[in-house]
Amino acid sequence: MKKGWTFWKKLKFAAIYAWRPALLVGFMGAFLYYLLWFRLGSLTPGLSSSEA
């Protein structure tokens, strides 16, 4: 019983202190995905963008 309690305690601790890095990683992932999508979208005619 004590083992499970410490597990939930650790989970709560992680939830409180790890949401900021997780959010940062999520934003970075979304930014990279958007960048990749924009790169692929710029190859198709119809989207006017500066050549890189």
Detailed description of the structure:
With 52 residues, this protein is mainly α. The protein has a domain at 18-42. Helices cover 79% and strands 0% of the residues. It is built from 2 helices and no strands. It has helices at 2-17, 19-43. It is rod-shaped and about 60 Å long.
Compact description:
The chain is an all-alpha fold and 52 residues long. It contains two helices and no strands.
Beta strands, count: 0
> Radius of gyration from the CA trace?
20 Å
Going by helix content, strand content and strand pairing, the class is mainly alpha
**End-to-end separation:** 60 Å
> Mind describing the biggest β-sheet?
none
Name the helix and strand elements from N-terminus to C-terminus, one letter apiece.
Answer: HH
- Share in β-strands: under 5%
User: Poorly predicted ranges (pLDDT <50, ≥5 residues)?
Assistant: none
Mean pLDDT: 80
Described by the principal axes of the CA atoms, the overall outline is rod-shaped
- Please tally the helical runs, counting DSSP H or I stretches of 4 or more residues: 2
Helix content: over 70%
Core attributes:
single chain, 52 residues, mainly alpha, 2 helices
Can you lay out the helices and strands and say which pair or pack?
Elements: H1 2-17, H2 19-43
